[in-house]
Amino acid sequence: MKYEQIKSIILTLLVVSSVFLTWNLWTYQPYLEPIGESNITEDVIINAQQEMQDIIVPFKLLYHRNDRTYGTQRKFEIQSMMDQMSSWDIYGLNDITRMLTDAEFKELVHGEDRVEIIFPDLITFDVYKSILKFRDTDLPADTFDRIIVKTTEESADFAAVYFVSYTDQRVYESRINYSAVQAFKEDFVSKSIQHPEYFSYDPTERRRIYLPENSLDMNSYRYVTSPESIEGFVNALFSEPSLVSHEYTNIGEEYNDDSSLMRVNVNNKTFTFVNIEEEAEVELETNITDLITQTSGFINDHGGWPEEVTSYQYFSVSKPQRLVHYRMFVHDLPVFNESGMAEYSVVLGKLNIFKYSRPYTNLEGMTKDTNSVTLPSGQEVLDRLLEDNINPEQIEDIIPGFKLTNDVSSFVILEPAWYYKYAGAWIRIQPDDVGRGQLGLE
Q1: Structural domain boundaries of the chain?
Q2: Which residues are within 8 A (CB) of 12 and not within 5 positions of it... i.e. 6 or more apart?
Q3: For the segment 96-131, what is each residue's pLDDT rounded down to a tens digit?
Q4: CATH topology for 221-364?
């Protein structure tokens, strides 16, 4: 073979090899281990998730009619009422605050042919637009804590609904079709006389509270509790559970990593989770919409709501503390406990949740150990409070509720009791302070 032929063959092989290698380079797809795959934490859903209308619920209804007031805290009726109101078209929101004197404000809220729908604390139009149908395009950047439905017509076509921030006496007036009010009166107002009658007391010229005329026959309850797995909360709340260290303390357990800490109190069956990186070094501006949506959304993300027996509802908010409380409700009434066994306490940090405190047990089932209890009338409770050295102007509300106490390791007792809101704090009226005998299980 001639030299020139060998040279041509070699050159051809080199060209073919080059084309083959180039094609392989262009089409090569190497298998790469996903970066950080071992550190990805899937969403952990511990229990139930809730819609906003299940979390933000009025806790009291007052019907003013025929010179009398009737009241109820029955959750079934409250939810039925809100379900009906969610179908209303609410339009023409208008701030009428400056048009009202103190006397006119009280008449607007507490006057004849009114229904007061009372929330435990302030909410915003922006939050509540997912529950009611506001037809105005631009909603006020404002708050309210009660809705007033006027059950007499303003005209043949419409009736008035008011959104009121009671302490600040801010009022927004709106309209609904009068046909909606007619159904509302038939379904709710006409049946209001079945509820206990209430009387009024004015702690100040600007505030009025209502209490039941008669004593209340209630029951105390004993419940079996079922603890949720702490490991489930560790997996849900820590970003990298595999890196979390665990040790025992004199009151329970402690879990931590470089940025977060969880302390568990096994006696009270509660824990506090703190995301240290989220603590704000300076006071941050915030609004109630963000506080409610971010804290409730955080609980929803890990399914932190109970499924049966109890419900937790929005109960209070503090803008300065960036804090929201969601309280346990049983048998339509709020439950209180000094050790945090009846509430979720959530603090918003710079961007996410800074602090989260809550019980990790659910009420699973009621035992047969129930006792009948008679709570004294509202007048007896009020008379006793006014005998004490307290400032009546600081009394914001007085309601029945339950005190939760530990019985044994797997049981709790709910005792009926009167509570009053004084300068922003809910305080239990002690059993020996009022009435015709024992108010609960002591």
Answers
A1: 52-212, 221-364, 367-433
A2: none
A3: 999 999 999 999 999 999 999 999 999 999 999 999
A4: TATA-Binding Protein (3.30.310)
